[in-house]
Hints:
Elements: H1 5-14, H2 33-41, E1 52-55, H3 61-70, E2 103-108, H4 109-118, H5 125-156, H6 166-172, E3 178-183, E4 194-200, E5 205-213, E6 229-236, H7 252-271, H8 276-279, H9 323-332, E7 350-353, E8 361-364, H10 379-389, H11 405-417, H12 419-422, H13 444-460, E9 464-470, H14 476-481, H15 484-489, E10 493-498, H16 509-524, H17 528-538, H18 542-548, H19 575-589, E11 596-601, H20 608-619, E12 624-630, H21 640-650, E13 654-660, H22 665-676, H23 684-694, H24 698-710, E14 714-717, E15 722-725, H25 727-732, H26 739-748, H27 752-763, E16 767-769, H28 770-777, H29 785-794, E17 799-801, E18 805-808, H30 811-819, H31 826-839, H32 847-857, H33 868-887, H34 891-904, H35 909-912, H36 914-931, H37 934-947, H38 957-972, H39 976-989, H40 1002-1017, H41 1021-1025, H42 1033-1052, H43 1057-1070, H44 1078-1090, H45 1096-1114, H46 1122-1131, H47 1133-1137, H48 1140-1156, H49 1160-1177, H50 1181-1197, H51 1201-1218, H52 1236-1249, H53 1253-1264, H54 1269-1272, H55 1275-1294, H56 1300-1320, H57 1322-1340, H58 1344-1360, H59 1364-1381, H60 1384-1401, H61 1404-1418
Parallel strand pairs: 9-12, 9-13, 10-11, 11-12
Antiparallel strand pairs: 1-2, 2-3, 3-4, 4-5, 5-6, 7-8, 14-15, 16-18, 17-18
Amino acid sequence: MTPDPIVRQSVSARRQFSFPDDLSLSLSRSSSHDDFNEFLDNLHRLDSIDCVQFEREELDESSYQKWRFDKGESSAVCDENTGTHKNSGYRFGEQDSPIKAPEVHVMPLEQWNQAEATNTTHPDPQYQRKLRQASMIRKITVGFGIAKLLQCVSQQNGSSVSNYSWSLLRSLCSVDNFVVEFIKDGASSESGWEVIGVDMITPFVSVQIVTSNLPSNCEGDSWGGITGRNVVAEITNPLLPPGVPSGAQDLSDSQNVLCHMLGVLLHFLFSGNRRELMNQAGLPPDGGDYHMPGKEVVEIDGPSTKKKSLDNFRPSQRCGIRQDLVNTWKDSHPLVSGADFTQGTSILVHANMRNQTGNSDELQVNCSFPPLVELGFPSCLSELVANLVDCGFGLFSSDDSYRSLDVAINDLQILLRGPHRFLFDGPPSKGNAFVGNERLYGRSKEIAYLTNAFCSVASTGESESIFVGGFSGCGKTRLVLSIFESARIAGGYAVTRKFDEMQSSSPLAVVLSAFNELCILVAQQSSQRRLMEFHEKLSNVIPFLRRVLPNIVDLLPSNVAPSSTNIQADIGISFSSLCFTIQQLMRVISSSSRPVLLFLDDLQWADLMSLRLIQCVLSGLDSMLFIGGFRDNELGQEHVLLEFFNTLSSFNIKNTKMTLTGISAGDVNAMISDTLGVFPRTCKSLSDVVYRKTNGNPYFALEFLRSLVERDLITYSLREKRWNWDINQIGAENITDNVLCILTNKMSVLDDNAQTALKVASCFGINISIVIARKLDGTSQYHNLHATLDEVVVKEGFMDFDGTYYRFVHDKVREAAYGLIPPAEKHEFHFTIGMTMQATQEKEDETSVLFAIIDQINRCPPTMFRDDSQRIVIANLNYKAGMKAIKFSDFMSAHAYMKAAVSLLPENSWSNNYDLSLKCNFHFAKAAYSCGYVDQAKEILDEVIQHGEALEDKSQYMLDSYSLLVSLFYLARKDLLQAFQTCIKVLNLLGEDLPLNGTVDKAELTCIVTKTKTLLQNNSNEDLLAIHEETSRRNIAIMHFYDQLSIVTYLAMPKCCPYFLARWAHFSLTHNVSCKYTPGAFVSFSSMLCCEDFGEDAKIACRIGKIGMLMLNRHSSAIEELPGVYLTYYVYAGSLIEPIQACENMLRHAYEIGMQTGNPSKAAFILSTMVAKQIKAGTNLLTLKRDVANYSKLAGQHAQKQLQCNLHMMSEIVSSLIGDETAVRSPDEKDIPAWEECEFCLEMMASLYLGHMERVYHKSKLWDEMTDSVKKKVPPRVIYVAFFSGLASASLYSYGKKNSQRHLSNVAKSLTILEKAESFSEWNFKNKASLLRAVMLSITVQDDAVIQTEFNRAIEASHSSKFVHEEGLACELAGIHYKKIGTKSLALSFFRRAESCYKSWGSHVKVRHMARQLDLVHG
Length: 1419
């Protein structure tokens, strides 16, 4: 990394020192050895040099800001008057004039060091501590710069430094030979005197230092406001001659002496000793030759001694040097006699064996370097300095002494990157020795991949899934969590949840909890305006989402009351409706600018329904990154997760699998270095042992370290302020490498109360709530559980507490705690916990307590229950839990609870416990139905009906069972006849006299229709709306089964449908029944009347239909009936009188409600009708094509093949109108019958616009030949077929095709139908009638004025009704007419307007066609 060019230029161009006159010297002079030595002789006079300043050249604001940004600093603040640098940073004035960069100061090293000492005093002890820590960081930065300079010298000079004269060396490494560059703030603090460079005066070499603070979540986490920093240096040495590249020759001698000199300089920096330190560094007298120490071996009355450190030497400890040799050596050399080797003094030994005969030994020693740790400095810093100084100990140099400046420079960088680990940490607390090391090791490639995947999702908008597998403890969770902050900074939403082995009875709870948290994140990061947008888009969904996501209310704007989004609790929500509502929510929340990152951990314990929900959300959503973590060694061959992988791929979702193994030995070394706060080179032997024991598993490695601490094999020395260990002793110990054994051994030494607390907590999964802990705390068997968790378990580091939950710190800890319970006693342990809590259960207990009780009991086999009475009690508990789950729409949990309740019922329960058996079985069937288990639900309902005592049971479960059974029949579509027979049977049992086979003669049909019409005509709208709310359960049941019968007969026996619709409405009118099924009776009867003709009955139908819609709005409990009522009304009566755009919008609402209330069959037909109306209304084709593709994808998720087929057909029609290539229907759709709306109306429309008039006419003839009167007489179909058929016949007639009179007759017939339709709604049909009238006039009369009037009326009516496509069609036909009669100006005008309309519609093919027409007219 290179410093900013502007900074570098100004430094190199303007640096010149002002020396006293007799030493005035430009540093641009040559660097000969003579000049070098001459300058060194006078260098001590540098003390008299004043601090030299220079300023950076004037910079513009943008360049300066960039420089500050590259330096990793905050926005600049500058004094507006003086331009000087303030403590608060830099602040630019309002003027755009150039500014001056902050002043750069240059100060001799010793003077700078004295200034540092002066500016680190403060009366506030805490603030003074902070100042001193900041000063320590700056001094280490200076030391780093000096090390780089010495490294440069060693690499650039052709000869080894060891051959320099002593005067040269002494001057080279003198304190006075270095100068510090810094930016001085108003006060000295951690952001105060920023060191930006260090210079060596002679030979002139400069190092520019660029520092950048690490973010708080990186390895340089802040400590007391001081953050770690990256340090990058660039050497500028214009005065050095070209030297030998690094590594070109053996510079080991040079490295040793320079390391020693660096240690002396660093000792001076931190200890504050004056320059006499250099004179006491064990150097020979001036002029003497210096030979590298340690080259020879001193032999004194014995074998050669091994090189060892004398640092902290004691006669009986550690050193390993023969004491008799040391004593002889000390006695022989008076320079060291009297030195106190017990006080940790370091010595410099220069041993020069003059000759091999041993004539003389020259040993010069000076004891002048007390360990810095004794002066209050951190142990790592003290060790670094001592190991550097130790490089000059000759044969006594320790194994830890530095071998090169490169290693020392790396260690200095480590100190700067992690001051909180290596400099400022205090002694560890018991049980938390290695807590706080959050750095992720050895996963840089994986982090980069995940980050890139998130960026890809944000940029492309395409959802993606990544699955991270690996053994427990390999770092899957921390790997994914490491990108969360980046995702949030990028504007995304990141949430995570974890599946739990012990919470399998609440399968969907984990996923729903994640989406619930997502609501809070979105609310926190959204403005009121954005919340208003959310509310507008989600207004129909929020009432249903509140049932499963309570936090959805946080997305409501401040001016919307949460109570306004309530919905009655008895509305059922099935799995399909849950998927739909979650999809709707995620479509609004997630976008390319706000992507969602969802991380679900421990998928090996996930259930099938949770995975299906994720699959539905992913396949129907853009801009979402799903990451799943799992233990691949715990997946069986038939695990649901394997099916999930394949399912995602089938939906074309990018799917990636990533497997984590152990980290490398080097990464383990770095992790242990950071954990213990020692240099990597120091703990290399220890990390090798740990790596071999744990195979590089990060969590196991840390637990192994903790086990060594527990066994006192690693100890913390308060005097040395560091961790110590004996690697030989560790290697000799028989220590297990099984992390479970390690954890179990740690737990086994705890007292009985602590072990019991761990066992109990593990039974509840990865966490236990404080509510449960307090509940158990109040029992005699588990008293003091709460206190034990706080005082022992948390303090020992097994669990964390966040104020709400006690949470195990890792899965393996919970596994070890659960393993404390013998396998044979596990069931009994769970049962005891559950029954103990049940005995103290109170009504006011939270719902979570009930779930916790029953979850514990249900883990036991039924054989554990004593007798039938206990089984009944537990069955009741399961029933209560199931009903609570149904209330919260957690149908999967409800299914599990109800299944358990039914399984616990005794064999004679239908006779001895009838009520409990009835309600448990019914709700079991209902939960199975909600989960999509149709066959299971049918089996259960058959049993209920078989054992039921009375149809009108007081609990009404029998009627509800029949109703649910009918729903199952017609949903399957293969048992429609059985569904019909069931409805007839129940209605007859309730008193209605209906034909069993459904056969009704015409006279009977006419009679009931007439009676019903008469009743309606005899009552005003006010009278009908004033009918009181029905309370009779019998009458409501009859209305309900008539509702179901209307659907079954429409699907199975459409010819019988009018009779039963009339009977339904007649019953409501004769019994004055007003309930949630009454709107359906009125609207259904109106639909039957609409199919007769466009006369008086149609007008009655419109009136009745409107009354039905008004009734629907009055019945808030009719939300489940809304989709069916809307569908019937807007397909029949509503399509005659309501604007088609309004019909489309209301059908969209009905579709959403249908999906939300668990009625996908009705919703599918509603969606098909809505899209068809959008095509007819002239919705932009490009938008429509995209929407249809999304709807088709959603239909595939819910296995709605008929809907998929309909949408595919409509997509083909839209594509043809756009001008795209028509898609080929897939083979599985060919056997599905075509929908009449597509087969006739829409295909005729597309053929008409594309100019295929013969095809349109052919379709109209097939329409006339249809025998199904019910499907044929749907009002909008009749009208649109007439419109397209009439225009096609007119075109064929004008071109003189055969059967001209038949075409002309068809035009007249079609016009009659359109004119009747116009009388109902001018908005929908006036333009169509006018256009067909204009076309008919153009082929039958010659009055241009009348023809132009009709064309203009058609065009203006289309424009006012916003039918852009029909406006274009009217203009096109008018242009063709005027082109034919030779009026070119009008033809050009109409063709241009048609081209503009088709462009707005999105029909490229029609735009091209109009361009050709214009060319022909111009031609």
